[in-house]
Design goal:
Number of strands: 7
Oligomer: single chain
Helix content: 40-55%
Structural class: alpha+beta
CATH architecture of the domain at 6-110: Roll
Largest sheet: 7 strands, antiparallel
CATH topology of the domain at 6-110: PH-domain like
CATH superfamily of the domain at 6-110: Pleckstrin-homology domain (PH domain)/Phosphotyrosine-binding domain (PTB)
Distance between the termini: 22 Å
Radius of gyration: 47 Å
Length: about 525
């Protein structure tokens, strides 16, 4: 066990004692006492302050209140004693200063973000959808048994699922917008279309190229919306869908159909190179590539340009394509994948528990059968003689017994005591089975109060073990007090229900056992 980090003499509450700084807390023990009168864990140290009088050095340590308690902050005034009072106070200030800095870093690291209005709305929607959860929330949070954050800490999956559902947005409709003209133009009148903003949005979402043209022209005020829609109605994007026989005009959208050039490609199509600009490649010289200058030399890449391939390589490519197309039709079908159940069974089944499969007999490839059996006949000759003698005698005795047997059913007698015993056992078994069946039908459901106790205790136990894991002893002690009181009230309800013919004690035993385990862990 590690020794104390620092020990010095100090007075506290007008009593002289020893101030000891351990690994997790510092304590003050009065002279002559065995147990410390003051214990301050390092995580609860909030701030320190000192006086200006060197003759009587005093250090005030402010201890924060434990979590989930209404206790105010506590101040401890420690007066250091001679002969090294000032030096001891300086060492204690240095030690506690490091502790306070570590506490501040821990608080920043574990600080939870403030609850936003969206989070509150999500919680409200979950409680509105689940009536049982709403009642549990009312019995735990509204009655101040646990805090709001502790209640939702165990239900992060519900919050994440509800938040995900709220973030879903309705996608664009897959129905094609039909633009129907108000006239056919056969009588000399103009053909007009009525287009709404929803129709324009649907058209732009269905045709990315049309949207690109719309952003480049209408958004930048190059043309009006009416002109753009007129060109759209004349283009192939509408004429093909409308089933028109007239030739569509695509000159307006032609330049938007080409993809944007990739500037990082090895050979950009739209990139222009200046052979006189040597900053493009500082390591290149015009004498090295007089034909292309400092542009990328595509002629030096074998197979990069199909037009300049040698004739033999073009023949090889054609032959390779013919072979692939021929073999593709003759290729065997791939083996179907095994079902998931079969794969899981093969990976989890133990060899020791697997039933041994007998191997099928295989025919011996013997040329002369007579020689093979003749070699083994000599060793088994004596054994066959003995077996034949016993077999003949057994058959003879069995034959005589069967021929001499006569049925005498009239003389068969059954003892009354044995028959009464068998019937009594059958009647008792039938009566017991009927009684158990009726009892199972007549078992009343547990009282509603008991069900509420069970749900509340389960939630409190979950919060208790979370506080125990976080070493929050004050919070765990408060929860144990609440659980103990709830267990006493639940026992009273259980006893009253059992007097009326119920079996609540058996159903409630697991919860009482869990509460007892929590009480033992809190000691």
């Amino acid at each position: 066990m590690a020794g104390p980090r620092l020990q010095c003499s100090a007075s506290y509450l007008k009593s002289i004692g020893t101030l000891t700084f351990g690994q997790r807390e510092f304590s003050w023990t009065e002279t002559g006492a065995d147990t410390p009168a003051l214990r301050v864990p390092y995580p609860t140290v909030k701030s320190i302050a000192q006086n200006k009088n060197p003759a009587k050095p005093i250090l005030k340590v402010t201890q924060s209140s434990p979590d989930d308690t209404e206790q105010p902050e506590v101040n401890h005034n420690l007066t250091f004693l001679a002969p090294d009072a000032v030096e001891n106070r300086a060492r204690v200030i240095t030690l506690l200063g490091d502790v306070i800095q570590a506490n501040n870093r821990t608080i920043k690291a574990v600080a939870q973000p403030t609850t936003t209005n969206e989070d509150l709305q999500i919680r409200h929607d979950i409680l509105r959808k689940d009536e049982d959860l709403k009642q549990l929330h009312a019995s735990l949070v509204l009655s101040r048994l646990i805090s709001e954050d502790d209640f939702w800490a165990a239900r992060q999956e519900l919050l994440a699922q509800e938040k995900w559902q709220r973030s879903q947005r309705k996608g664009p409709t897959g129905v094609i917008i039909e633009l129907r003209p108000s006239g056919n133009g056969s009588d000399g009148t103009e053909t007009t279309y009525k287009v709404t903003n929803e129709m324009i949005t649907s058209i732009l979402s269905q045709y990315p190229i049309v949207k690109r043209a719309y952003d480049d022209t209408v958004t930048t005020n190059k043309i009006t919306t009416e002109d753009f829609l007129r060109r759209f109605l004349e283009s192939k994007y509408y004429q093909k869908r409308a089933g028109a026989s007239i030739k569509a005009s695509d000159e307006f959208f032609a330049k938007y159909e080409t993809k944007d050039d990739d500037d990082y490609a090895e050979h950009p199509k739209a990139a222009s190179y200046e052979s006189s600009n040597y900053l493009l490649d500082l390591g290149a010289q015009s004498e090295d590539h007089t034909e292309t200058g400092n542009r990328p030399d595509s002629t030096m890449r074998a197979g990069g340009v199909r037009a300049s391939l040698p004739l033999i390589r073009q023949f090889n490519r054609v032959s390779e394509g013919v072979l692939k197309s021929t073999l593709a039709g003759q290729a065997s079908l791939p083996k179907p994948a095994k079902p998931a159940d079969e794969v899981y069974k093969e990976s989890t089944e133990l060899d020791d528990l697997r039933v041994e499969q007998k191997q099928a007999a295989k025919a011996l490839m013997i040329g002369d059968v007579s020689k093979y059996y003749h070699a083994q006949a000599g060793s088994a000759a004596g054994q066959e003689d003995v077996t034949a003698v016993y077999s003949a005698s057994f058959k003879q005795s069995l034959r005589q017994t069967i021929l001499g047997w006569q049925p005498q059913l009239a003389k068969t007698s059954v003892y009354r005591s044995n028959a009464d015993k068998v019937l009594k056992q059958l009647n008792e078994m039938t009566r017991k089975r009927k009684r158990d069946h009726q009892r199972g039908d007549d078992i009343p459901p547990p009282p509603a109060t008991l069900q509420t106790y069970h749900l509340t205790a389960t939630e409190l136990l979950r919060t208790f073990w979370a506080a125990k894991k976080a070493r929050n002893d004050a919070k765990a002690a408060k929860l144990i007090t609440t659980l103990d009181e709830m267990a006493r009230n639940a026992r009273a309800v259980v006893e009253a229900a059992d007097e009326e013919g119920g079996q609540s004690q058996t159903m409630f035993k697991a919860m009482l056992y869990a509460i007892e385990r929590a009480k033992l862990a809190a000691v």
